[in-house]
Design goal:
By secondary structure, the protein is mainly alpha-helical. It contains two helices and two strands, in the order ββαα.
């Protein structure tokens, strides 16, 4: 059984600086016409470490921004993709939590069986 580590690494594409799809400098939606850097090698992309709570809160901000409307199609797609990545991070954390709970319950059940097998 594989258990989750304390941190989950998220690879970002560098298209936006803030988690909600806005430019960090001015808070406006990321520019749709922005030149994107050429694709990077898998190990060369910037990484950020997010806890479950951070990923969940950033995902909620992305959803709120999408629901507010007023974005171009490209901006909406960029936010949607960011939301998908954040949802995957949340899913990884939840999978890890389920595995930890299952391991703890199995350990408890094993201890209970050992007590039941004891002669006294």
């Amino acid at each position: 059984m594989t258990l989750m580590a304390d941190k989950v690494m998220v690879v970002t594409d560098g298209s936006t600086d803030a988690a909600d799809g806005t430019d960090a400098a001015n808070g406006s939606p990321a520019q749709a016409g922005r030149q994107k850097a050429s694709p990077r090698k898998a190990g060369a992309a910037p990484k950020e470490t997010l806890s479950y709570e951070q990923a969940r809160d950033k995902l909620a901000a992305v959803v709120k921004r999408l629901e507010a409307g007023g974005l171009t199609l490209e901006q909406s797609l960029e936010l949607w993709e960011r939301g998908e990545r954040l949802a995957a991070v949340c899913g990884e954390w939840l999978d890890g939590a389920r595995a930890r709970l299952a391991a703890a319950m199995a350990k408890r059940d094993d201890a209970d069986r050992a007590e039941d097998d004891a002669p006294f």
